[in-house]
Structures are given as C-alpha cells and as structure tokens.
Structure prediction request, 548 residues.
Amino acid sequence: MCKQHFKNQHGLSIHISKMHPSIVCGVCQRNDFKNEHGLSIHMSKVHHQDSHSSGRRETELYSRKVPQHGHYHSKDRKDEKHSARQRPSTAGGHRKDGYQGRFTTTHSPHGSAVNEKCKSYSGPEREHKGDTRTWPKSVPPKFGEIHRTDTYMSEHVIKEVAKVVQASPHTVTKPQEKAGGRGKPREPLLTERSPSSLSNSTLSCLASDKSKLLTILKAGIICPKEDSKLRVDRVNVFVQNLEETISRVSDFPLELFKSGSYYDKTKIDYADEFDFMFYPKANFEADFTNCPPGFCKIKKGRTTSQDFDKMFNKDGYLVPDFFKEKMFQIFKKCIESPGFREGRRTKRKPRAPESPAFTVFYDLQLQGKPPIDIDLVPAIRVDGWPSNFRKLHAKWLSDDHAKEAMKCFHAVTKTFPGKQADGGLLWRVSFSHAEKKLINHADYTDKGVRKTIFKILKKLKEDIKTDCPGIEKFCSYHLKMFMLGFFDRHKDFSEKNEELLFNQSIKELVKCLQSGEIRNYFIPSDNILKYVPDNEKALVARKLSEYI
Prediction:
C-alpha cells in the first residue's frame, strides 16, 4: 500500500513504473515496459501502429499485472533496465501515445486502497502533437498514397501533384479486385518519384491539358522560404568575410557584383548556387574591332592603376589569362588565409582550365544540408553602352529601368571556342547587370506573368535534362535570351493568358532549336546556339514537342 505524496507528474510516473509495473502489449503480450512511452515506441516499431490507435487506454488495450506477492524483484529491475537500453528514446522527449497531461492510478491492480492513498496528478491540458517519425522502409505505402522520397519536397508540392495526377485520365490504375464483388476500383497510383523531378513521360501525358501541366510545374518550383533564408544568411556571412580578407591580401581594390538566378529572382529550387563577380576598381575600355559577336578586347583606360601593367601586352591590351591567374591567386590566398573565418568550411572545386570561375564548396555544417556551390568570377566592368549593342526601349520596360540597365556591362575570361587571330586577347561580353535589371522588373509596368512563364519553362527544361543526362551545353542562359525576345514579340501578359503564353513559348522555342538559332538579346548578330551540339538541340526540341 502506498502512502507517498508527489510534487509533480514526473515523480508519480517514476514511482508507478518502478513500484507498480504492469503494462502489457495487447498484441504480443510483452510485459517488460517501463511506462506507456515504452509501449508506444514498441507498437510503432514492431507492430507499425500507435498504441492509442489500436483501441483504448490501459484498462481496455492492455492490463496491469503485478509480480508475485506484489514485490518488485531485483532480477526484474535489471531486466527492465536492460530492456530500456534497447528501446530508443523519442527525439525531444515528447510522448507519442496520445498522452494529454493527466495521469492517475484509477486502474491500479493494488485496488482501491492504493487509489485512495496515492495522490493522483492532474496537470494542465496540453495539445498532443502528431507522430512525426519516419516509418521503416519495409512498410509499403498504401495504394494511391504519395509518400516522400525527396527530403526537400514540401507538403504543398505533394498535395498539388496528388490532386492533378489522380484527376488525370492518363493516370495508371491498378486492376479491380475480382473476389466476391468487394473490390472497388483502386485509387490512382502515382510513382514514388519526387514531383520536382517527375519523369518526362509523366508530364508529357498531361500535355493535352495545359492547366494540369502548369499546376504540376508550378508546384515543383515552390520551396520553403525558411531553408533558403538560412542558406542566404550563411552565404552573406561568407561573402562579407571574403571581402574583408580580399581588402587585406589584394594588390588593388576589388568591387563585388551579385549575379545569377537567385538575385534576379528566377530560382526554381533551393538556393544552393551563387555567382559573384569581382572586378577591379579601375577604368578600362572595350574594343570590338575585328572581334566575333559577343566578344571584345580590353585596353587600358585613362587612369588605370599601374598594378595592372604586367597584365597588358605590348599593344596595351589586357591579357585574359594573366588577369585570370592573378585573380585566382587572390581567391586562393583568401580561402587559405588564417584570417578568413570561413576557410575551414571552404573547399575548392576542380574546374576545367577554360572555365572563367573559381568555384568553391561552402559547407553549412548542418545535418542534411549539402554544401553550397559558389562561383567567384573575375571580371572587368566597362561603363557605357556601345553602339553595336541593342538600345533598350521595350514597351514592357520602363524608361528608368532601361537607362539603368544600359549603364554598364562586364567582360569575363571565358575562352573563345573557335579559331581567331587574336583569340588569346578575347573576352566574353557579359550582360549580367542588364539581365538582372530587365528580369527583376519584367512585370513592373503591367503586373504580368513574364517571370512566371520564364520560371515554368526553366523548370520544364530542368526536368528534361534530368531525364536526358546527355544534355550539357543547352542551359538557362539560352532560355533567358529566348524569353527576353519572347517578351518583345507578345503584348498581353495578363494572368488570364498564362496557359496560352506558355504553350506559345514552347512552340517558338522548338522552332528556334530546330533552326539552330537563338539570338543574343543585346547583340542580335550573336547566335548563342552556335556552339551547342546539333544532337543536343534536336533532343531538346523533340522532348519539348511532346508538350505542344
């Protein structure tokens, strides 16, 4: 008989589990559980169900049994401790058995005497949080049930794709059961592939219904803002520390320009890639004489610092390889510097010799978060807008944004792929500054869906590349140049025309690929598909044709 008083629920729980053990599994009759929490873990791990989902509380689902003569033998206690060590605890210490904060000994086998003497604790009501544990791989999903195979996939994506695919007439269904007329048609079965990377065949079967296809593609480009914010915050710390280190180790001052899909807000997945241009704070001029379209030569300006003298040739042109080598030395010295606080998390990624970027992996040091790919690109900024560039005066673009876009351009050390007399002096013209302005403000004048169409088409391109790993040269840059021209050719980008515009964009892109020509929006004489292999262009065109 107990006459003890307890200050709180925890004390009573320990007392009951040690002095009055009596919890038995209602399925396998196991009776060595320390408390209801242990039973809950046992039910979920062994019988794949919650202890409370199988029925009732202790008086109905399981019964309390007391060892012989009502005493707790030392051997039993040792067995219980050993059993407790074998049962893993739940993350965070939360109970999984539906416990609501009330614990009494109403059904103790010691009888009413114990019930009267043991002070029962009645704590505050607490909301029970659902079981969030991952089921063992041996447990198959219910037929028609979508379950997670991509740990980064949001619940919104799952719901949206489930609604669309299950409603589709093309969805594969399992044959109806024959036995006794009991079988109703099974629910549509969706494969276990992540909606963000659904097979090309799955998407193309919905091509006749553009509304459903758009819903799936839109759902695939949604990602949690919290996760992206975490990554961006870490990258901002990386860049801030890198700039501080560069200011100490560099022979000349460098400026930073943030480019890429994250900064023009066309990212379709998690923020795991960033592009940063570093250019010297000095005056340079661009020379387009006898240069192929899209390339130029860089020569010394009026007040260029003497720090660059060793990088110029005898004719006064800046040699790309010399500049690239110097900048790479600065980047390497920074990430290896003891003063660079992020150096221990940073590892250089091997790249092809002709690549213009110094690429590093930046480890977030968070479980389940892969390293971030960061491109540090040496560049030269040239102020002004040469006469051989397109003058920006599109109707969908405001005059102020057009003027801002034409303020400057950059040149990067990308190797010229063909044969040219001055090939070793050629720099690739980069319009990252103008592209960022145009894409960010594409819907400014009419609140249209230009950026949405671009992102959906970009998502479709990524799904095709996932299905066809051989596609390497055709990239988002080609889509961006195509879409800027598409914005000029069409007028009404209101939301009501989204489906029509998406369909039209696919048709026009297929024609461009078949003809082998997409013009650089800023330099119309430059065909940017020129160096994409013919077999890639044909493959992408064929895959896109399935959606028309």
